[in-house]
Design a protein that fits this description.
The chain has 14 helices and 12 strands. By secondary structure, the protein is α/β, with parallel strands linked by helices. It folds into 2 domains: 233 residues, Type I PLP-dependent aspartate aminotransferase-like (Major domain) (Aspartate Aminotransferase, domain 2), CATH 3.40.640; 93 residues, Aspartate Aminotransferase, domain 1 (Alpha-Beta Complex). The strands form 3 sheets. The protein has a 7-stranded mixed sheet, with helices on both faces. Strands 9-12-11 form a 3-stranded antiparallel sheet, with helices on one face. A two-stranded parallel ribbon has the order 1-10. The structure holds pyridoxal-5'-phosphate. The site of pyridoxal-5'-phosphate has 13 residues, from α3.
Length: 348
């Protein structure tokens, strides 16, 4: 069954294509730690240029990109301002507290976003009783926000408030290129207000592993020290960087298909009794939907779908999240919606 599985669980579940595997096999390699791995250097230069930053650093994961940025920009006891749904808060094993000794002030707001006024309200008076606030972090697209895209003006406004108070700004851009493709806004325009940011290679870009962190030359020099400290410095990393080079050259524009498939899936769900798509504004590659009306729990629906060869994860007792990516075709979308309809009808 796994051969024919329609996998909408996550865009992390893509498998490297034959062409990507050929690029991997043919990669020119050297010692990354001596900065003589040509393919890693090429990938880093491509990402620095794409994001309009001085330099970039290839890392084994997106989590490490976030954690190193937090480490560079903060001291123990200092505070990060970010959204309550942020990946840094919820899905990084408490790393910011464990590795950097930071606390966080978690803002609320629709679709994973907050406003400049909220940041202003979150600023503390300066004084020895208060934690020093050193970093503002934004996630674009906002994962738990439904793959929502931050408006550029709003990004600029929240970063301006942070910078005026001496905070640094960091963008978790795991899916920034989804925002770029969907909105037509250049990556460098989204990146400009941030002191550091990164993109994931192992989500919609379809690579097996890796993220690339970018910023000023000084920032990247500091980041390389922590890459080594955290055990993320590699050797002939061109073998995996080659997948990233291939993906940047071939897999960005095609994410438009993923977005169309997500919208199509949401449309099909809208016709299934018992299913509710609470946020019909599908901007990128995610569809969160509520199954309360079916009388089944989200976990039950997920299990019954899996029996029919469709993998969609439950994100709460009542909700599931479907994510489109390059291994999901339009036919898969129709088949997945049909399977969901059958599950709902059998229950009701
Ligand atoms: C997936 C993800 C990460 C972590 O990236 P990994 O490459 O899986 O470590 C961080 N932030 C967001 C928003 C993500 O979706």
């Amino acid at each position: 069954m796994s051969q024919n599985l329609i996998n909408l669980y996550s865009d992390t579940q893509t498998k490297p294509s034959l062409e990507m595997r050929q690029a991997i096999a043919n990669a020119d390699v050297g010692d990354e730690q001596q900065e003589v791995d040509p393919t890693t250097n090429q990938l880093q230069n491509m990402v620095a240029e794409l994001l309009g930053k001085e330099a970039a650093l290839f890392l084994p994961s997106g989590v490490m990109c976030n954690q190193i940025a937090v480490k560079v920009w903060t001291n123990p006891g200092e505070e990060i301002i970010l959204h309550e749904t942020a990946h840094i808060v919820n899905f990084e094993s408490g790393g910011a507290a464990a590795l950097s000794g930071t606390m966080s002030q978690n803002l609320t707001g629709e679709r994973g976003m907050f406003t400049a006024d909220q940041v202003r309200d979150a600023l503390r008076p300066k004084g020895r009783h208060h934690p020093v606030q050193s970093l503002l972090a934004v996630e674009n697209t906002a994962n738990l926000g439904g793959g929502a895209i931050w408006p550029v003006d709003q990004i600029q406004a929240v970063c301006d408030v942070a910078h005026e108070s001496g905070l640094k700004t960091h963008l978790d851009g795991a899916r920034l290129l989804n925002a770029v493709v969907a909105s037509g806004t250049p990556a460098s325009a989204y990146a400009a207000p941030f002191d550091s940011l990164w993109i994931d290679l192992s989500k919609g870009l379809g690579c097996p592993v890796g993220g690339v962190l970018a910023g000023s030359r000084d920032f990247i020099n500091d980041a390389f020290r922590y890459k080594h400290m955290y055990g993320g410095a590699m050797r002939q990393s061109g073998i995996i960087a080659a997948a990233g080079v291939y993906a940047l050259e071939n897999n960005i524009d095609r994410m438009q298909d993923d977005h169309e498939n997500a919208r199509h899936f949401a449309d099909l769900l809208g016709d299934i009794p018992g299913i509710d798509v609470p946020d019909a504004n599908i901007e990128t590659n995610m569809v969160y939907f509520d199954v309360s009306g079916t009388g089944l729990s989200a976990a039950d629906v997920s299990a019954r779908l899996l029996d029919k060869g469709v993998k969609i994860g439950a994100t709460s007792d009542t909700r599931l999240r479907a994510v489109t990516h390059l291994d999901v075709s339009r036919d898969h979308i129709s088949a997945a919606a049909t399977a969901l309809r059958e599950v709902c009808e059998a229950a009701g």
